[in-house]
Design a protein that fits this description.
By secondary structure, this protein is of the alpha/beta class. It contains eleven helices and 14 strands. The radius of gyration is 18 Å and the shape is globular.
């Protein structure tokens, strides 16, 4: 399976998943013409996807969903809540999916996970028929326990690291917007992302920091925070800029153990509670999430 990150940030979001000649687009923050241009730039041998899945109803993720569905005739999958925002004029190429149930699109199984945001939003696990899996989770204010289960066995994790708390506090946003971004229905901070990374399943080989704010974060700050969280394990760490074009090749491999192999609900709930109250600084003591693992 190939994963292409073609846009990530408040200016528009776009990622592509390719397997067995099928191209699945997740989110429509860039118009079809912009997608075709990006695909030409990266040397792809096609200019349009075979299907589109939209995660939620904010413009940087769904603004061009109608153009894909109605203008280009591309099968487009949305939740009921997102459909009410996009308001397609025809149901011909539009399909509804549940935020609680897996569904198939071409050679992919998609597992959604509802996350806390100020509109209904999902994280997605995209798994190809050969067992390769990637998880994309942006636009969430808290880490639900279900997200930890979603990451088990995945090779690529694309996780929000939206803002640095200090840069948000001293930045140009008005106070109400600062509260929204930093609140439980807003966006993950660098610190929250780092707490999740400390208990990342061992299957994950590559981490990409996503949806970085151009006003309240810097790539070097986000990467430093994440690198500290991953210091005791081997993983490739990258940060996606707004219009970077990054390609990842995922290859099937024998099943390996992970920190959360076949997790039970009590365990992931305990870890999620620990992540919700992150440690203020790194010390030689285990952080709450690591301690939860040991105790369970």
């Amino acid at each position: 399976m190939r994963v292409r990150i073609l846009a990530s940030g408040s200016g528009g979001n776009l990622s592509l998943y390719e397997h067995d000649g099928f191209a699945l687009l997740v989110d429509a923050g860039v118009d079809p013409g912009g997608l075709a241009s990006r695909l030409r730039q990266v040397g792809a041998d096609y200019t349009r996807p075979d299907a589109l899945v939209v995660t939620h109803g904010h413009a940087d993720h769904c603004a061009h969903a109608r153009a894909y569905a109605e203008g280009a005739g591309i099968p487009t999958y949305m939740t009921e809540a997102t459909m009410r925002v996009v308001r397609p004029s025809s149901a011909r190429h539009v399909f509804r999916y549940s935020p609680k149930e897996p569904f198939r699109v071409g050679p992919f199984e998609l597992r959604p996970c509802a996350v806390s945001h100020d509109v209904p939003q999902v994280a997605l696990r995209v798994q190809s028929d050969d067992g390769c899996a990637a998880v994309i989770a942006t636009d969430l204010g808290e880490v639900p326990s279900e997200l930890l289960s979603l990451l088990v066995g995945a090779q690529l994790a694309m996780l929000e690291s939206n803002h640095d708390k200090h840069l948000l506090e001293v930045g140009p946003y008005p106070r109400f917007l600062k509260r929204r971004v930093g609140g439980p229905r807003g966006h993950l901070s660098n610190d929250q992302c780092a707490e999740l990374l400390r208990v990342l399943p061992a299957s994950v080989e590559t981490v990409v920091l996503m949806h970085l704010s151009e006003k309240n974060n810097r790539p070097d700050v986000a990467l430093d925070c994440a690198a500290d969280a991953l210091s005791d394990r081997s993983a490739t760490l990258l940060a996606a800029r707004q219009y970077d074009k990054q390609l990842f090749e995922l290859a099937p491999r024998p099943r390996e153990g992970s920190l959360l192999e076949a997790p039970d609900r009590a365990r992931v709930d305990a870890i999620a509670r620990a992540i919700a109250t992150p440690s203020k600084r790194r010390t030689t003591e285990p952080n709450p999430a690591q301690l939860a693992l040991k105790l369970l």
